[in-house]
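Per reviewer request, we include the raw input and output of the structure prediction for the construct analysed in the revised manuscript.
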Amino acid sequence: MATVAQENIGTLHEKIVIKLAKEDYTPVFTSTLKKQAKQASLPGFRKGKVPAGMLKKMYGPGIFQEEVLRMAGIELEKYLIENKIEFLAKPVPAESQQALNLDMDADKEYVFEYELGAVPTMELTLLEKKEKWPMYKVTVTDEMVTEEVERFRYKAGNMTEPETITVEDNVLNVTFIETNDQGETAEDGLNKENSLLLKYFTKKAQDALMGKKAGDEVNMKIKDAINEDVLPAIVKDLDLDPALEENTSKSFIIKIDKVGLIEKPEMTEVFFGQIYPGMDIKTEEDFRAKVKEDIQNYWAGQSKSFLHNEMYERFIHETEFDLPDNFLKRWLLISEEKYKTPEDVEAEYSNFTHGIRWELIMKKLVEENNIDVSREEIEGSVKAQLQQYFGGQPFDSDADWVQSFINKQMQDRGTYEKTYREVLGHKLFHFLESKVETEEKEIALEDFIKLPHAHH
């Protein structure tokens, strides 16, 4: 009978040794060979009548190797199940494993050695701390409402093509052409198109561009041409890192390809209905109130996401437990193709264990608090995602094609598991919210955006 032994070789690092004697593997090998004989068909022999000796010589070595390896795997799995051993990642052959020469004619014992990382124990004490968690409330100003109203007007407006640049609301299609120190086109320099409003340019650039038309050019450093608040986004659009001074100091010919101007609609019921169909908004005051409500709801959602991120990070960093680091590093090197060297593993290991820690914490939170996800909840999430494809607008959710779409998504294993995890995560954080005391804090938008995240 096969023997199995386990020994600890490091922190949460276990080795399992399986020994298979001849009496363990021979009956299985013989049985499989007989089954093969019944199906074998060779020229000159009727099906199932190939001589056993010939069949063993031809197919025996391959069948023997396959069956012995399969038996070792079965014994490992049986041992893990019977002893209720929880482990991280799939067990791998031990570093001490000796090379095996699987010979069907040899009367010998085969030894298989596996390594695995055991699941650590932990105590989740974060929720027991008597503290108030900040729930930020972004102050929505009249300026923010006005800016959003104007954005809607741009969205609903009609584009015209005036000959020259005359106002800061002009839309400019431009090409950024990188230049050298002499102001000439740089060899192998950047050449990229973009579209932006004149008001995104600095006062100096606006003065230079005013009155220009398609085909005209100005030559400026990018940081002198674009307003500071949008400069990082424009530099990033040029496929450059905005954090580097050398990139924001690059000089460009800014060539005007086309001048546009959006004719914004008047603040009428027709416009209100375009933005909020079916809501019967009649006055500008009511429209602005609805816009303000939407902005508040958006930033309330962002505030809740901030709280969830704080919970996530603090659980990871304030819940103390060990990981089988030696095993996990070796597992990554063996199992993941992107890691070619131990140095590659070391470079990414911190990020990898960040995720592992959360998976273990999440599993414990879910199990201890009986948090589960029903099939109906998953279907509801799939339906909600479908509605997003319609821009959030109402649609006939009871139509046959809708249920057919949902059924198809539910049968796709990848989609099902992804949606399950999303719903489970949402329910978990909703539960965590209910277990902590929050404190509302008014905050300006610019201050909220600058808030540091836990352990950032």
